[in-house]
Amino acid sequence: MSTYSIKDLEQLSGIKAHTLRIWEQRYAILKPQRTFSNIRTYDEQELKLVLNIALLKEHGLKISEIAKMKTEEIHQRVNAISESQISYPEQIHALTFAMLDLDEDQFEKIITTNIIKLGFEALIINIIYPFLNRISTLWMTSSIGPAQEHFIANLIRQKIIVAIDGQLNKQREGSKKFILFLPEGELQELILLFADYVIRSRQNKVVYLGQSLPFEELSFAYNLHKPNYLLTIFKSALDCGEFQAYLERLSTNFPQAQILIICNLHTSHNRIRIPDNIQLVGGIQDLISIAEY
Hints:
Elements: E1 3-4, H1 6-13, H2 17-27, E2 33-34, E3 40-43, H3 44-58, H4 63-66, H5 71-84, H6 88-100, H7 104-118, H8 120-140, H9 146-165, E4 177-183, H10 190-201, E5 205-213, H11 215-225, E6 229-234, H12 240-253, E7 258-263, E8 278-281, H13 284-292
Parallel strand pairs: 4-5, 4-6, 6-7, 7-8
Antiparallel strand pairs: 1-3, 2-3
C-alpha cells in the first residue's frame, strides 16, 4: 500500500499541512503513522478521507460536522455531490479517485457523463487540462506512483485519439498547416494530442510527429511540408541557458514558420529573450484563437 507525507496530502487536497495537523490534534480525524525520525506518514485510506473532507468543506460543511460522520456516510455524501454537480472541482475530484483506485469503470462514467453535458472540447479544457496539471505536480513530487500516472494517462490518451479520428479530413479556405512535435526527451504528449484535436477541428492541416523527436527529423519534416506553424510543448525543467539555446536553434533553422511553444515559464526564466518568430502560448484557449484565425 502506498504511503504519503503530509506535504503529499496538501498537494492533493489543497488543505494546508498546518490545518491537517490541527484537525489531527483537535478531532483525531487522522491517525498517521510515525517514522523513526518522527515524520508523519499516511496511508491511502487517509488520503482519500482528506480528499473527501476537502470536497465537503467546499460545499459548506464544517470540519466539526464532518468529524462526527462515519466513513461510509462521508463517502455517500461525496458520491451524491459528484453525481449531482457538474461543476469542475467535483469532477476533477472524482477523476483523482479513479486514478488512485485504478478504476476504469469510474473513469468511463465520469468522461461519458461530462461529454454528454459539456461536449468533448469543454470537457478537456475545463476538467482534463487542469487535472493533467495536477497530476503533473503530483508525479514530480512522487505523490502518485507510475502505475497510477500511466493508467490515467493512457485512458485519456485513448479518448483524445478517438476524438481526433472522428474529425473530417477537410481543410477550410485559408486554413493553415501545423507541424506538432515534442523535443527530444519530452514524453508527455497528452496536451500535444489535444492540440492536434483543436487544430483539426478548426479544419486546419496537421502533421503530427509525436514525442521525443530528434531535431534532424524535425528539419526533414519542415523541408518536406513547409508548414505555417511549428507547435511544441516544454514540460521538463530546463535551465535558462538550455531553453534559450533551443529557442535560438528553432528560430534560426525555421525562419519562415511561426513557432508556437506551450510552456509555463518560471520566475527564473524572465531574462530569456524570445526571438521574433517564436510565440509563447499560455494554454489551450490561446491555441484555439490561433487555430481559428
